[in-house]
Design brief:
It contains no helices and 30 strands. With 329 residues, it is mostly beta strands. It has a single domain, classed as Neuraminidase (6 Propeller), CATH 2.120.10.30. A five-stranded mixed sheet has the order 1-25-24-23-22, with no helix packed on it.
Length: 329
């Protein structure tokens, strides 16, 4: 079931960069090459006060806020690949934490902000590690014959969900935060991947093509009550729970058209938020769940936009190529 918002191009405008926002209001970190190299920037949620945080020769992308908003982790491309770095929220005290990261794979801060869970390529295999954000080193959490990736920390910090090909096909697993008690919770001939915990920690959303098309599913963390949320010819991927857990935003791909949609968990009502030709993606919820930041190339280049969560009032925040928006909590 679809509800398609009616958007008018006249509603889309560039937000004034001189807007004034409370210093305590949520911020958006992002990557931009406006100065000739991809660097990390931060701005207010309305697009105001855009400022550059990194000034390095390397390409810096994929910012990720700490739970208390005091630090930002990011990926930096060096000659040997990608490294994980962390810095203060004002750009100071940048420190390298580890190398060999998968740049486009998921990474998450632990709820207490002391560690980041991520996938690394070591020993010729992709495994899940956690790294201390104070620079104290790595802990290897998985050691299987397959690739382990897509880690997602439970809201209470006690468990980590991930995908693994250790049994010959990508399935969803759950383990304790220290890597113990690794348990498989899905069993399908198709690939199950991209697990994400619900805000209350009871349910995991994931992507599977078990019915011939990539769709969104949910399952309880013990593997019971498997439910299919979407059923459409589009290729559905990248599930992200709303802060209140009532909806899941995702990317729907139809040929060369990439749109952002949401599905209500209770009744599976699906709402299409973007309808422009081309790419709309890299979506991220605002902390209050009232807005969504995303990337769109509707104006001929990748720019950051926000919109209300019903798809109305799209607002362009950047006027140069920008990627990887990340909203602080």
């Amino acid at each position: 079931m679809y509800s398609v918002p009616r958007l008018c191009l006249c509603e889309v405008g560039v937000v004034s960069l001189a807007a004034h926002t409370s210093p305590d209001a949520p911020k958006i970190a992002f990557a931009s090459d406006r100065d000739g190299n991809w660097e990390i920037y931060v701005m207010d949620g309305d697009g105001g006060r855009q400022r550059r945080l990194t000034m390095r020769e390397e390409q810096d992308r994929f910012p990720l806020w700490s739970p208390d908003r005091s630090k930002i982790a990011f990926g930096s491309q060096v000659a040997s690949g990608w490294e994980l770095w962390v810095m203060d929220a004002d750009g100071r005290n940048a420190t390298s934490l580890c190398s060999g990261i998968l740049a486009k794979d998921s990474r998450q801060w632990s709820p207490d902000g002391k560690r980041i869970v991520l996938a690394l390529t070591r020993d010729g295999n992709v495994e899940i590690y956690s790294v201390r954000t104070d620079g104290g080193g790595l802990t290897r959490l998985t050691n299987s014959g397959g690739d382990d990736r897509d880690p997602s920390w439970s809201p209470d910090g006690a468990r980590i969900a991930f995908s693994s090909t250790r049994d010959g096909n990508s399935e969803i697993y759950v383990m304790a935060a220290d890597g113990s008690n690794q348990t498989r919770i899905t069993n399908s001939a198709a690939r199950d991947e991209q697990p994400r915990w619900s805000p209350n920690g009871s349910t995991i959303a994931f992507v599977s093509a078990r019915d011939g098309q990539r769709e969104l599913y949910t399952v309880l963390s013990d593997g019971s009550r498997l439910e299919r949320l979407t059923n459409d010819p589009a290729d559905d991927q990248v599930p992200l729970w709303s802060p209140d857990g009532s909806r899941i935003a995702f990317q729907a791909v139809r040929g060369k058209e990439y749109d952002i949609e949401v599905v209500a968990v209770a009744n599976r009502t699906r709402t299409r938020l973007t309808t422009t030709a081309g790419y709309d993606g890299m979506h991220t919820w605002s902390p209050d769940g009232r807005e969504m930041a995303f990337i769109s190339d509707r104006d001929g280049y990748d720019a950051i936009y926000t919109m209300d969560v019903d798809g109305s009032h799209p607002r362009r925040l950047t006027t140069t190529s920008s990627l990887n928006p990340a909203w602080s909590r």
